[in-house]
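Task card 7
Instruction: Convert sequence to structure tokens.
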Amino acid sequence: MYMNVDIISDTICPWCFVGKRRFERALAERPDIQVDVRWRTFQLNPDMPTEGIDRSEYVALKFGGEEQARAVYENIRGAGKLEGIPFDFAAIPRTPNTIDSHRLIRWAGSAGVQDAVVERLFARYFTQGADIGDREELVEVARYAGMDADLVADLFERGEDVDLVRKEDEAARVMGVNAVPCFVFAKKYVVFGAQEPDAFTELFDHMAREAEAEAASEAVDTEA
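Output:
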């Protein structure tokens, strides 16, 4: 079975990284399913300054301080450990504006390396503390994934696709998305959050049965 999957996420969303791993585990359990995955824009902090903000300031604004954030991050670290993700939140010096990282993901789609770029962005930010709002870092991510790094640098300099990325973020909100990750299957079924693999495999099985029923119905109509 073949299906299109749109994954709405943000590059600084830890649950999006966890959700990616769980989705991949679900696909491994259903090797007969082929998917065309497209990563779509969502900004957790659409009003973030272009240069980002100091991590401690961000934590204070979002959680009320380090102590309140500790429990939240401990939960995420536990989920990450189960998925093989060594989250290192202490290594992150700044929380970036993510508009440029989403622009890179968009271009990576055209280059056929979107998954590699998304994976690298998550790993660099969450396990190595890289500033993925820095264009030099993003160009290196592009190079790592096999993209034309000089072209990517030029696209950043020219301001390409800023409006398109912002419109995609707005479109997600119009759809009712207010938290990520959000998985949209065949533009018909939606799974919110970093669900366990069973949530995905159950949906895959339902869609397979639905496709079989439709095929049988079409066959009957043809015979008639």
